[in-house]
User: What shape does this take?
Amino acid sequence: MRIGLAFNQRPADVVVDRDGERRTTFEPLTDAYVEWDDEETIAAVRDALTAFGEVVLLEAVDDFASRLAAARVDFLFNMAEGALGPNREAHVPAIAEFLGVPYLGSDPLTLGLSLHKVRAKEVFRQRGVPTAPFTWIESERDLHFLANGQRYPAFLKPAWEGSSKGIAEANYVTDSVTAQALARHLLTTYRQPVLVEEFLSGEEFTVAILGNGEEAKALPIIRYRFEGLPAGALPIMGYEAKWKWDVPDNPLEILECPARIDDGLAARIRETAVAAYRALGCRDWGRVDLRLDAAGAVNVIEINPLPGIIPDPVANSCFPCAARAAGMSYDELIQSAVRVAWRRIAGGELGAEPLTEVAT
Assistant: This one.
């Protein structure tokens, strides 16, 4: 079998160390490429996929469509986040569908809806999946909404970013004047609408889900231990927590998995996470972020059908963390996702029939 691996690799800065050796390093001074994967993650996924056959690396830039067509792969493992616009995560799956290449993960519609936080919350609300009250700001003409009826404290986010891009402690606001100034900044900086949510003051969890339909199952729940953040920090997983404070030389101890919570709360979290997964039509795998309100009710924050899968446990990557708690190695996680996708595509176990027959 030939498996394509579609990815976006994070740019690296070339530096020269004291011994004159050239090496690369990534310093996230800005958030432009935080969604893309590093070389180590791409290599780890490639190595896990070799269990199924030859792996063809396909960086999802420039002439990706023609290179995918020429590669004649039987199956595409998609982990590409894309570069520009609200549909960027849907580009690779759309190209694969056009070329008739079966692939891992959600379809373009689901990826587009999920990345657009406002659209996702509209679907949740329509489908009865609990989520925090919200509004959104498309331009400065809408700023008056923040002074007319908006409840505070509130939290503001760019509408279609991931990996905590544009999400910082300063996004927590307690009055309309501050909210309007922040909304102007986000509109100008990220050139996209701004989601405004009532701030949920309770604990935060994330749930990794593997499977399709009635077989979709939640892996062990992760609770964010915000007491592991620097003293006085706002209890959120924002840009500072993910990319500034949590560094290899001084990693945060912030993920508790399995979460030490009572059985009733755990059941409500799992039920809500799976409901959100199904509401947006997610396939094969995904991760749902949830938070409690002041009364302890479970609310969905957002959903990520392209979950982060950094292999190093020190990196606090949630899906691999949950998989480890479920007894899976990193390779087993990647291979399980492929097998789940194959059952969806072919209706049987991997190897039961040629993938090329499905593609046609």
